[in-house]
Every structure is written in structure tokens, then in C-alpha cells.
Amino acid sequence: MESSSRNKLEKFTKTSNDSIRYKERGRTKGGGRREMLLGIGFLMQGFRCFPWMAVIFFLKDGLRVDPSTLQILQNSANLPMVAKPFYGLLSDSFYVFGQHRIPYIAFGALLQAVSWLTIASLPSSSMSFFTITVYLLLGNLGASIVEVANDAVVAECGKQSANDSGSSSSDLQSYAWVASSIGGVLGNLLGGISITQFSPSAMFSFFGILLTLQFFITISVSERSLDLPKSPSNHGIRKQLSELLLVLRKPEIYQPISWFAASYAIIPALTGTMFFYQTQHLKIESSVLGISKGTMAVLMVSDALFVNGFYRTMGIPDSLYIVVVSGLLEVLYFFKTLPFSVLMAKLCPAGCEGSLMAFVMSSIALAFIVSGYLGVALGSYVEITETDFSGFQKGLLIQAACTVLPLFWSSVIPEYPKLKTQKKEK
Question: pTM for the whole thing?
Fold first, then answer.
């Protein structure tokens, strides 16, 4: 009797352990596919600077545009990014064959591939400013859809890992940030070298082929295999919109978003002018520009390691890192992006990940567009042209002064969210 009971107990224990190991293997397998999909998505997102470097040189050397026109196109091409909340609402509300992330990633990748391959196939002699603008808008539409779906997956999985194990939900954001930064490093370095070796159409074709591969890889993955949390938001877009508006009424949500967007918008960007100054006035080679932008992306990777506590484990105090490295990144406008994304992912309610993160990113995109248009106005005010850069120093000083202004209302940013923890303690 005792032996029989012992045997039953051993069988039950073995079955339980096998079940646990099976679930762990399932989670690991799902997590691996999820990281592969996100890694490719964010890598391609960062690598978009590769064809854009060819676009900028083609506009300057092929179509002979001036700095203001170049900057207007660079910022206007990002207008599809402003509609990200709409894509997020679609992704949260409408399922395609039982999936609400994979189809949107695949469609966005395909839309980009069609756009860039079409630009590559057009004869350079017959390509007009209007034609390339239309296809760039189409490509950025696809890119924005992919980014919305990827950001939603990151927010969902980050929240799930925090709830299940109590671990930091910044791990997946950091992984995505690193993947995007690596793509940026490769895109800028290869773009700077390739622009002197290959034609713009060849670079467009190469990027279009990569996007086509991303499309086929994406459709080969089943969303069920990604181990995503079950979303309670499988309902109409009107209901989803009302939930988003309800979330945006919370001060801990709208205050940091407002500050973050405004801190970018009020700084007039002089990217087009700087590009002409570097290439026309200083005669800097494209490979050097690629290396400089690649260095910036490397610093962004370093920022991700900082958020994960990597430097702290090496004995480097956080304050020292902030003073030495983050001060430089703040000048480049990128230091605050990752911590802000982590904060929004923590505050994002379940079922609203896609629409809220999309709203956040669209606010940033709109801020960059406003910043670019202000830069065009500033360039006109200080009388900068493609041949006269005498007012450039004055414009940079005005830009630097505007960078300090957001500090005066930074108090609206909430501290680390402790609402749930406080409720549990009570």
C-alpha cells in the first residue's frame, strides 16, 4: 500500500516536472522566435539610413535642390509617421486570420519593398522631385506600420515578463534598441562607403531585396508561436479609441508625452544645412559622414547597456556615465528616448499597447517635423544658402539656446511608476 502510494506520488511528480519543462521549453522557443522577429524588424528599422543616404546625395547632386528644399523633403516624408495612432488602433482592434501583429509587420515590410524597388527601377534622368517624394511617403507609410506593430509586441511582452517574474521590463526594450542601433551603425557605415562605389538605384535595390526577405520571414512565423499574452482588446475600433482617449486623460500619461514631444519640437533642426555645409563647404567625403553617424549609433547601444545596469556591474557609477557619455548623447537628441519608452511601456494599460505606443511615437514624429520646419525658418532668418554659410554660427547658437528651454518644465515628468506596488502594499 505504501509502495503503491509512493509510486503514484513519483509518477505525479514526474508528470508535473515534465509539464513544467515542456512549458519552459515552449516559452523559450516562443521567446526565441519573438526575439528573432523583433531583431530583424528593428535591425531593418535602423538600416533605413542606408538608402536614405543615397536619397540625400541624389537630391543634392542629381536634382540640385537647395538646403531648405532638402530639409523640407526629409521632414515631409515623415508625415505618415504622424498617423501611427490610427495604425495602432487597427492593430489592437482588427485581427487578420486570428493574428493582430504579424500581418501588419508583413504588410508594412511589403509596402516598403515595393516602394524602394520601384524607385530603383525608375530611370534617374526621368525621376522628378515629386515622383521620389510620393514613393518615399509610401515607403515611410510601410515603415510606420511595422514600427507600430513591433512597438506593441515589445510593450506586451515587457509587461508580461514584469508581471510573471517581477523582472525589469526594460530588457526587451533594450534588446530592440540595440538591434536598431546595430542597424544604424551598419546602415551609416555601408551607406557612406557604398555611395562612392555604387549608384543610388543599386543601393535602393539592395534595400528593397532585404525588405522582401523580411516579408517572407515574417509570414513564415505564426503569431501563436511567439508566446504573446492574450489581449483582451479584440473589439471594435470605436471602443479601442475611447479606451485610448481615457488613457490619455491620465496626468501620468499625457504630461510626460507632452514634455517629451515639446522638448524636440521647439529645437529648430538644421540637418539639411549641416549636410550641405559638410559636403559643399568642407568637402567632407561621404564615408566620413557614415563613420560619424555610425559612432552616434554606437553611443546609442552604450545607452541601452546603461539602462540594463551593465556599467554599474563594472563599478562605474551612474552619475559618472551620465556626465561623460549621456551629456554627449543629449546633444544628439537620443539619450532620453530609451528611458522614456520604458516608462511608457510600464504605464501602458493591457490591451492598449499598440495604440498608446503608436500615439507616443507619432507625437515624437510630429515634433521632429515641426523641428525641421522651424529649422528651415531659422535658416532663412540667418540667411543660409547652399553657397553662403556666414550665418550658420548664429543659427547654431540659437539652436543651442532652444535646447535648454525644456528644462524649465521638466517637473511634469513623473517619477518611476509605483502605483501598483503601493496598492499591493496597502
Answer: 0.71
